[in-house]
Q: What sequence folds into this?
């Protein structure tokens, strides 16, 4: 099992801190990795909570200042699982300290921030990754494989949505630990950077670049109490965003994201229509892939529901037996397994910071178009 | 359009009287028939209701005694849509009068009754049909075609269910116009003859004969008020029946039917598993057929949901355009169109009385096994 | 059955001519109508085909010039089932002749044409209807009822799509009997007027007016052979259209329509998200309605799949029994039944020409925005 | 995190060895446990493979003789993940050595073996559990909670199936590491003990005891090569089994299991129908529960698809956020978390050996009835 240790320094202990920790901890039980991830240090501002997190996950030590963590010689990889407003500063410092850097998506709040980050990791020549985990849902990876094989022929349409409903109540606060995603200062944008960014990363990966777009954004609840100050403040984020796009390959894209779609918890859906076939997927039933093959003989042609659990499906050979599904967090396991494996090769696992910058660029265009009402060229 | 008239005498004006009338009336608008069905006479015991029914559907005349109808020279075809206890007597008389005879399923209450009916129509040499309409749901017809093509290879399993929930309340009466199906005298049996008979007819048609079976039957509500007398009476029918069967081709069958499955209105489902593929269908989504083709290449293999609405699908070329579904009553239109077409040929449309007798024979075996607990050989 | 005759003059014998004829012929068998529809005359340019159509459906006479039909004193209602470029002229003439006028959707090719039609029917004071049949799919009617009841609370999102795949091949011609929908001269527009118009009619009916919109339109296949001339010609229609819209009630709308979505035959889907619940429907499974009720107690809350076949569901009390579905054409039966019933009252069945003009106005804005790239205000 | 260590001795390193190891390793990251599971020793006959397994999962030591493991003083809990023919001997020895004992299901090959095991653990007074993991799929646990709440009212029907397709080819061998489940000597029975046992454990837990049953069993492939000897041998297991049962509460049960249902990988489905509602679940979509509540107002009543991912759902509060699903192996995590927690209380986590013996008793009755054709009373 595994060679040299890979010492992880984890910054943040929230939802994503747990996902990433679980991924590093679990990956070597299922995947053959060239280096053995070691949970070396957990870092958070609250000493007590950070210690509890470290105890829970088996981190060997604790830091309360990310600058100290970044400087530690025994850390090989810095993983950034804190709100978006800290991504750039930490990542740049980590790169400058020669660490491999992983950050939870999105890369940054803005293209400008992202560009600084790309420059830093490329200058330092360190391995880097933005954790757009959905690429490594096996069914999504399979979409990528089918599209790349050319089986769909010319692509006409790509559509994706990410629908949630957890902010409908005006009593949900903004800011603070659990709700920083509603605070424009911490998050950069609302659903665009949080949810649509996932849809966009997958779309760019599978269907290539977006040439131009127009968008509609809306803030349904105009004021919310700040979780820390207790003061009512104007809401600066987009509660919902919808986008019309033209891809560079001539296909049309539609994207939508909202936290006001009652009944949908985390409904990320995507569909791609080509000349000879179509593929559709949704996160709620993430182990299934819908596939329409126009070449099947007439009377028995239909949409096929593929239960993506067989040994020949991406990543599945490492898990259980056909018919037994995996869950959300496995996409993080795959991501970290791929990243660690790629660190030892000259072909990095994606999306790198540079690749992910493109998604941030598209997000910025969406926000801009939402304000101007005009088409934005990318 | 169409040649000679085919004069219909309809006995019964209930649910099935309406279905059959609609079928005769609609068939020539969509199918090219060798004879033109004419709604000549409607017959029922209640003169007023029979007249209203005749007015509604355009029957030219009315009778209140089925014996008179059967004797009328201007009637070519007698269609029996009354409770099961009258099937045998009317059918025998109609056959003796030289009429073509259609009866709503089941053929009869018992094998003995059915044998008399078969003898009568065969002696008279008249066209005859039991209206097991589900054979001509396009998706079910497609099942038959695929199985007959041999694509499934060796068959291992056949399973079917027909689940309803409308008799759960003990306040539902037995007997009378709307609830004669709960009266063992009128119906012969409960769910076995009413619902399971449909499953069995399809199974025998698609998968061949049943060699032996064992069954469990139950009457959950032991007493019900009679709708006409108002008196509490013991319930004589089976409320639920479940069957294990061995088909002559070596495959195993499981069948179940009940009117106590809360939430299921008319959930007739069937599935057949063969060496190389499987097919599954359900009545609630009757225009879809689920198809698993094991020969499809590995990673993209799955259950295909075929929307059976294309021109190349059975019967569909006569209706609308792809994607636009048809409904329950269309199966009756197909049945009557096929029957009228077959009348002019030497290959009768099935199931004939003789074919349908086999289903009644199996029903009798189920009732017998339900009482004895032993396997019955057919 | 029923009172005075209502003499129908049907213009057109194609797909829609069949649907409307079936509706008039079937409606009185299931609904109690104040007037009895009589198939008085069928009209088409090709005498032979028109006669065959008349024979098939039982029309009493035939005309080959719509002007003659419109002038006939024995015609009460003119039903226009011909390509869109003839709607205005025929409808105006029929109204001037004092006939009730039904036209298949869309009202007209342009707002200008539509305004002439509205003026004509209102001046003449004749009953008028545009046959947007999907309003009377029972599940869609149920959506309307639930929304009107206020149960959804504040509405945040409305989204609809109409996806087909039948024009992907560049070998499909334009123009002529079967493919006039691809000829901009005959149709006025492509998917916008043909498919999106359905989505828009339902949306305006259920969710109120659209205040502004921006659109993207595309023509994937630039040249097609004309079915009649055999000559290659530039394609003038929109093959695909996608729309972002703001409704007057503050909710956001997204609409998309295409004939290049491989695997989708006639996938009209709609969804509406409100504060307290959501509803979703799709045409391929038209007898089901998806309903999410946020007020249901926590652990058992989910999306409910309502099989819309019970007696208490819109229109269903007139058909069969619970669990037995109806088909596409039944929506036309409901439309004609409602229209004939409403003719005898002072509350017209919708959409009237005036109501349907709004949909045409939105279609025009979509085509305009597709060209300009700018938001259009309505 | 956590108190005293709980030293695990794992016997077996196959599919189930991996599942159980993952469960012990992961449970403390998500659940608050009174004792900390420590992977103390892994045991298998093949020293090399056992060592590799130990390295992969972090076991501190390795044994190649289970007797030595059982005797080790530093082992608190013996977990038996080897073929069924070894369960009894190991479990009895472990109990006699005073260890807590967990065994993968089924308890034993026969009731006689099982009774010895029950006697041993009860005499020794050690904590014991049979790992019927499906009880702790959150949706299944929710079924149990709803049924126990009495919301379904009187129960009429319980039906379950477990369908696979991996042994259809006669080239699949029997015996050996990967295919011992096809060897009657090692497994005790075929699908009955392997698959139906799961269905039965859940059924008995949720719906109470089975009073009597009749069964049909079949061996489709009569001879298979033994994986180790290379010799053709008669197949002694049941390839398929179907059961009719009467529960003690008066409801009817139907059960079926096969490895010859083409297209189904691990399709465990269950459904329970009560007077006021029904519940249905299937393993392929294990995070969903279908729920029909008859008390919902009429027009909006339907089958609700509950995405069981909310904090208020069983076990889910410990995992991610609403909408994000978990996978197959999580049911083992829940099982071990519950077992370890219950060890410190006087209310054991089920099923204990004694409870699981009932399932083995029913399995024996199925095999017996499959041979005799008669009803068996339990």
A:
């Amino acid at each position: 099992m595994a060679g040299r240790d890979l010492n992880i320094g984890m910054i943040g202990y929230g939802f994503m801190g747990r996902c990433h920790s679980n991924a590093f901890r679990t990956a070597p039980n299922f995947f053959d990795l060239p280096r053995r991830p070691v949970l070396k240090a957990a870092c958070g501002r609250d000493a007590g909570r950070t210690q509890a997190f470290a105890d829970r996950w088996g981190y060997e030590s604790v830091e309360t200042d990310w600058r100290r963590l970044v400087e530690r010689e025994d850390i090989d990889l810095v993983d950034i699982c804190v709100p978006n407003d800290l991504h750039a500063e930490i990542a740049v410092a980590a790169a400058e300290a020669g660490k491999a850097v992983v950050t939870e998506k999105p890369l940054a709040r803005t293209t400008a921030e992202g560009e600084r980050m790309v420059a830093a990791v490329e200058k330092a020549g360190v391995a880097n990754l933005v954790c757009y985990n959905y690429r490594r849902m096996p069914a999504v990876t399979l979409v990528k494989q089918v599209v790349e094989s050319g089986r769909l022929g010319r692509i006409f349409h790509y559509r994706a949505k990410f629908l949630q409903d957890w902010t409908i109540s005006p009593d949900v606060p903004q800011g603070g630990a659990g709700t920083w995603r509603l605070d424009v200062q911490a998050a950069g944008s609302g659903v665009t950077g949080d949810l649509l960014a996932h849809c966009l990363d997958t779309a760019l990966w599978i269907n290539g670049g977006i040439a131009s777009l127009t968008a509609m954004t809306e803030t349904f609840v105009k004021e919310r109490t700040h979780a820390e100050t207790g003061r009512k403040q104007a809401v600066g984020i987009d509660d919902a965003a919808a986008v019309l796009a033209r891809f560079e390959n001539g296909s049309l894209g539609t994207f939508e994201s909202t936290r006001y779609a009652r009944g949908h918890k985390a409904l990320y859906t995507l569909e791609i229509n080509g000349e000879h076939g179509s593929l559709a997927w949704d996160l709620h039933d993430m182990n299934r892939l819908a596939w329409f093959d126009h070449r099947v003989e007439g009377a028995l042609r239909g949409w096929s529901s593929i239960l993506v659990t067989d040994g020949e499906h991406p990543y599945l050979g490492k898990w259980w037996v056909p018919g037994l599904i995996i869950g959300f967090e496995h996409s993080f396991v795959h991501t970290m397994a791929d990243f660690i494996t790629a660190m030892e090769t000259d072909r990095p696992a994606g999306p790198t910071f540079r690749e992910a910058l493109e998604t941030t660029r598209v997000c910025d265009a969406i926000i801009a178009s939402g304000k101007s009402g005009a088409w934005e060229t990318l």
